[in-house]
Write a structure and sequence with these properties.
Layout (H helix, E strand, L loop, with lengths): L2 H9 L12 E7 L4 E5 L12 H11 L5 E8 L9 H10 L4 E4 L4 E3 H4 L11
Parallel strand pairs: 3-4
Antiparallel strand pairs: 1-2, 1-3, 4-5
């Protein structure tokens, strides 16, 4: 099994999901080789819920690691789960070529699933 999928799967138990019951775990690797995990964190005000992917990204960035190379996403259902649109956009900010590992061993790139992202180029 892919080491990122393993790390994401281990993080599932830390998810806070009292409303949906769906646990989502994530693990990302930066260019320095450091691994960060994340889980979904639900809130009774659903708009304030945070996805596992953004939790992991924000942990990495808060420690100065902004060069995200790969990310794995898993769900408690065992079915492959893709990053939502917001997470795709956040990941795009740091590396449009991020590799995304799914639980069915499929590997995609961020550009494949978000081909027309809003980018910092619009500010130039």
């Amino acid at each position: 099994m892919n080491f990122l999928i393993e790390a994401a799967t281990k993080s599932l138990k830390k998810a806070y999901n009292p409303y949906s019951g769906l646990s989502v775990g994530c693990a990302l690797k930066t260019s320095s080789g450091k691994i960060y995990d994340g889980v979904n964190i639900e809130n009774s005000v659903f708009g304030l819920t945070m996805c596992a992917e953004r939790v992991a990204v924000f942990k990495a960035v808060s420690e100065g690691n902004v060069d995200i190379e790969e990310i794995a996403v898993v769900a408690s259902t065992g079915k492959p789960i893709y990053p939502c649109g917001a997470c795709r956009q956040v990941l795009f900010e740091f590396n449009p070529k991020t590799k995304i590992h799914l639980s069915d061993e499929k590997i995609l790139t961020l550009l494949e699933i978000l081909p027309f992202a809003f980018s910092k180029d619009v500010f130039e």
